[in-house]
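Handout for the seminar on molecular recognition.
Each group receives one record of this type.
Step one: identify the two inputs.
Step two: read the structure output and locate the region that could contact alpha-D-galactopyranose.
Step three: write two sentences on what you found, then compare them with the reference statements printed after the record.
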Amino acid sequence: MNITTLNKVFLDVFHVLPKHAFFAPGRINLIGEHTDYNGGHVFPCAITYGTYAVARKREDQLVRLYSENFPDKGIIEFNLNELTFDQKHNWANYPKGMIRYIMEAGYEIPTGFECAIEGDIPNGAGLSSSASIELLTGVLVNGLYGLEIPRLDLIKIGKRVENEFIGVNSGIMDQFAVGMGMKDAGILLDCQTLRYEYAPIQLDDYKILIMNTNKRRELADSKYNERRSECDQALELLQQKLSIDALGQLTEEEFTENQHLIANETIRRRAKHAVYENIRTLKALNELKGGNLEAFGRLMNESHISLRDDYEVTGVELDSLVEAAWKQPGVIGARMTGAGFGGCAIAIVENSEVENFITNVGAAYQGKIGYSADFYVASIGDGAKEIALESVK
Ligand code: GLA
């Protein structure tokens, strides 16, 4: 994938040349899963896989969008005066929602535009292709119309699109990682206060591998919302005694002392995950800062076990990949990443073992699940930005 090819696509589809180019990454989360909507910490990073766009302003009020990933959908067209969700507009509802909420926030988008998009984030893999399109649209209108929308506002608008326009009740991690990513750094984000810090990630002798279950995530949204409401119930019960606003404010000890307030055993386990995972994330950052990668890896493993046994969002596909990964030589740690119920896992693997790892884990997965997994080496890259537009050759 490169911009020169996308320029040709744009020329073919719109019969003129684009004037600007943009990129927004996907993300992986290293640790801190299902903690963002519980006011806890997350530790994601942007990856170099992402979504590219080339674009040009129009004179009228039309927005015309084309995606090389969904060529059968053709050009999707709408007017700046009618920015409502429309099922048949498919993927274009993400840019549409962004444009609508950016305008509602008081920014002027005086004309429509044409845009061609192409992404190399594996489809439906839980690597935040939707947050990538949201932030891509944000930097695109910023660039085309010189709007100077602060980055954090774009991130919040992206989350609003997901929650209100699309109807997925997700937290802020994905948009934050895609919007604020930095090459070779993870972002430790406190989701309650939105305070954050970058932590350099230099894995000289190791690679981060992404393992894709290739499992369709059909149940993901309903189960995701179910977990959110289970955590809300737990919080309410704890609030009978404790003055807290979020599960992420509890220490392990405070939770242990007060867990009897949650009579239902399932709800108690959900809350336990949220509390312990948050603390684990802070411990993991400290280990990384201290150069103790082995300890970081052990915390990744514990995170997966907690997501498997207490939060119950892994499933046989993710468990098979991760459990096979744990058995391989040269593996520092492995866990699911993102919402779960399919999608991707990650593993930190010694350079010299990567090939073996892929062969062995791939075979174990195929043997157990009956179809194959995909493996990609992740590089940590920058957040959403305007990039140089090369001319069509
Ligand atoms: C999805 C959501 C995020 C976060 C993760 C789980 O990726 O979009 O907000 O809740 O799941 O950590």
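Reference statements: The chain has two domains: 3-201+381-387, 206-378. The first helix runs from residue 3 to 14.
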